[in-house]
Design brief:
The protein is an alpha/beta fold and 275 residues long. Helix content is 38%, strand content 13%. It starts with a strand and ends with a strand.
């Protein structure tokens, strides 16, 4: 039986990447419209189809409304800049092109593209698929397994990295599942998620490798009274005000009852294969 390969694209992350890749040489139409984001996204999509020959493919989009993470932490992504008008133009045009190519567009109110891709990735893996999450976003590393890979395009120009569990460990110093606590400890300025004061990449890796998880750091005993005031659990306890644990805000959560159908990767195909 031929290998089943499903590619799941994080649309907005790739549209932003395409837009800024052409920032110095934008693609402008005769009527003055900047189409760099659409052009770059579709070019990359066609490269995947030609080079990787996936058996299944879908593209996930973020919706404009709030998500369950905003319910847990009101300031989530509150510091992000306004979306550039050219990207706002590109989103519906990209969806239009995808539908013309008979490629599924996935989105769900209250959830992000990360959640949709994470859900389908895990379900596809359980059904024997090799899964490739196509995004430059390192948050997806927490989902990487022996059958789920991060297909990470370069910041500029050609080339991609395909990260497996060993490569995640080599790159960040922690295992894929430990990326949740790693990002929680150091925080994430892009998403306005606060970390622990004075904890950056190096300290976060040291703490996780020493204790294993945030929970173990909090529960770890301190042998010396002099060290107790400097123990990491002191600062961690101060974050307890965040509902359900601030360090879990970025977890790629499955959501119940989602029916998933991935279409054949051949752009004009009508066949559907249920996962």
């Amino acid at each position: 039986m031929a290998e089943k390969k499903i590619f799941l694209l994080d649309a907005l992350a790739l549209i932003y990447r395409a837009h800024f890749a052409f920032i110095k040489t934008p693609r402008i139409t005769a009527n003055g419209q900047n189409t760099s984001a659409v052009f770059g996204f579709v070019n990359f999509l066609l490269q995947i189809l030609d080079k990787e020959k996936p058996t299944h493919l879908a593209v996930a989009f973020d919706l404009s409304g709030p998500t369950f993470r905003h319910d847990k932490f009101e300031a989530y992504k509150a510091t992000r800049e306004e979306m550039p008008e050219d990207i706002r133009f590109a989103i519906p045009k990209t969806k239009e092109l995808l539908r013309a190519l008979n490629i599924p567009v996935l989105e769900m109110e209250g959830y992000e593209a990360d959640d949709v891709i994470g859900t389908i990735a895990k379900r596809a893996e359980a059904h024997g698929y090799q899964v490739y999450m196509v995004t430059p976003d390192k948050d997806y590393c927490q989902l990487v397994t022996d059958n789920i890979f991060l297909y990470k395009p370069s910041r500029a120009g050609e080339g991609v990295e395909i990260l497996n569990p060993a490569m995640v460990k080599e790159r960040y110093g922690v295992t894929p599942i430990q990326m949740i606590d790693f990002l929680g400890l150091k925080g994430d300025k892009v998403d306005n998620i606060p970390g622990i004061p004075k904890v950056g990449d190096v300290t976060a890796v040291e703490l996780i490798n020493q204790f294993g998880s945030v929970e173990e750091i909090v529960n770890a005993p301190t042998k010396s009274p002099k060290r107790r005031s400097k123990h990491p659990s002191k600062n961690l306890a101060n974050r307890a005000c965040y509902p359900n644990g601030w360090q879990r805000l970025q977890r790629m959560r499955r959501f119940p009852g989602m029916r998933t159908t991935a279409r054949s990767a051949t752009p004009t195909a009508k066949r559907r294969s249920s996962l």
